[in-house]
Amino acid sequence: MTSASTSFSIPETMRDEIDVLVDSGEYSSRSDVMRDAFRTFLRKNPEKRIRITVELYKSKDISLMRAAELAEMDLENYKEELKERGINIETREGGEEEKEEVEKRL
User: Fold this and answer.
1) What is the DSSP letter of 95?
2) End-to-end alpha-carbon separation of the chain, Å?
3) Average pLDDT, 10 consecutive residues per value, the chain (106 residues)
């Protein structure tokens, strides 16, 4: 996984709270706090997680199988979700997508 730097503004009190978590040793950096906060946000907001995966799938940044995995859905339910959103499902011939996914895991 590659990393990219992003900056954004937060209230000073929130920054101070994040610094307390880092200074106490609970997290190693502000970035770790923010990554954990975003993962928690997505866990508590599955619709947003699905929306993200749909957009990544539509833009061909991730495969169908990877999108379903990130959405925390089985493949058939994810396909149904795409159909309900009016999104065409593109599959590669001969199970190439599945082969690629298996190879990535090995």
Assistant:
1) G
2) 16
3) 86 98 98 96 96 96 96 96 93 55 48
Residue 23 to residues 29, 35, 36: CA-CA distances in angstroms?
9, 17, 16
Annotated domain spans of the chain:
11-44, 46-106
pTM above 0.90, yes or no: no
The three-state (H, E, C) secondary structure of 50-92, written as one string: HHHHHHHHHCCCCCHHHHHHHCCCCHHHHHHHHHHCCCCCCCC
Q: Which of 91, 59, 60, 61 has the alpha carbon at shortest distance from 75?
A: 91
How far from the centroid of its chain's Cα atoms is residue 7's Cα?
A: 19
Pair of tokens at residue 97 = 């997508």
8, 12, 17, 18 alpha-carbon torsion, rounded to 10°: 30
pLDDT at 3 (0 to 100)? 82
Q: Which helix (H) or strand (E) holds 42?
A: helix 30-44
